[in-house]
C-alpha cells in the first residue's frame, strides 16, 4: 500500500480494458503527466487473451492453441509503461482475474472468467481499493459505448463509473472523470487527407458521424497537447508488437500527420466542473484545470481529492 501523503500532489488514474489500449488511446497524455511529475496509475482490466497475433513466430500463443497470449502481453504492457514513464500499473483484481471477452456476440463473451460477465460491484470493489490507496483527483476511462462497442471497454466504463460512485460516497472519489473522445473536425480532416489513398483507414465511411467515437466539437472538454511525447507514445505502441503490426494504419496516419496525431488526445468531461480553457469551445489544456492542484502544490493531508 502507498501512503498518499508521499505521492505527488497531482494523481491521475486511467482504467483500460486490454494491454495496448492505454498506448493507442491515452499514451501521450500518460507520458505528459508522468514527465511533469504527476502520479499516473494505470489499471488494465484483462490480459487481452483473445487478441489477434501479428507476430507469426508467436502464433501458437493464441487462445485456440496454447492460450498463453495473455501472459505474453503482460511483458508487452510492462515495456509500454516503461516507454511512457509510468511506474504504477495494476491489473484489476490481479493479473488474470478477468479474461478478455472477445468481440461482441462471440462465444468468448460467455467464458466464466470473461470480464463481460464480471459482477459489477465486485469488480468495482477492486478499483475502489486502488482509489482508496492513491486518491486520484482525475480519472480517465471510456464512454458508455466503450469508445467503439467492445464488451470489455463497455464493462471497463461501467466498473470505473461504479467505483467512482462508491468511492465518492466514502469521500475520496475523483473530482473529475474524463472519457476518451475524437472530435468530429479531426476525423473529417483525416478522412479528407486519406480520400483516394490506397491505405485509407476510413474506407467505406462517407461521413465522420458514422464512426461510433465521433464527438461533436462543442462536446469536447479537453485537448491535451503532448506533441513532445509523441515518440514515447509510438514506442509504447511498438511494444505491443503482437497486436499492432509494423504496417498498421496507426503508423500510416502517424507518418502523414506526425506528432499531431501521436501527441494530441481529446476527452469529454463526464463528472466534475470544467476548468479554464481556450479557443472557440473553451477546451481545457490540463485535465487538472480548476482543481486546487492545477496551478500549485496542495499540501492537504490527502490531496485535492479530500478538499474538492
TrEMBL record:
NCBIfam families the UniProt entry points to: mycothiol_MshB
Function recorded in the entry: Catalyzes the deacetylation of 1D-myo-inositol 2-acetamido-2-deoxy-alpha-D-glucopyranoside (GlcNAc-Ins) in the mycothiol biosynthesis pathway.
Pfam families: PIG-L
Record keywords: Hydrolase, Metal-binding, Zinc
Cofactors, names only: Zn(2+)
Database matches in SUPFAM superfamilies: LmbE-like
Family: Belongs to the MshB deacetylase family.
Binding-site residues, Zn(2+): 18, 21, 153
Record note on cofactor: Binds 1 zinc ion per subunit.
Keyword Nucleotide-binding in annotation: no
The name this protein goes by in its record: 1D-myo-inositol 2-acetamido-2-deoxy-alpha-D-glucopyranoside deacetylase
Swiss-Prot/TrEMBL catalytic activity: 1D-myo-inositol 2-acetamido-2-deoxy-alpha-D-glucopyranoside + H2O = 1D-myo-inositol 2-amino-2-deoxy-alpha-D-glucopyranoside + acetate
MF-aspect GO terms: N-acetylglucosaminylinositol deacetylase activity
Entry keyword annotation includes Zinc: yes
EC numbers, comma separated: 3.5.1.103
Highest classification ranks of the organism: Bacteria, Bacillati, Actinomycetota, Actinomycetes, Micromonosporales
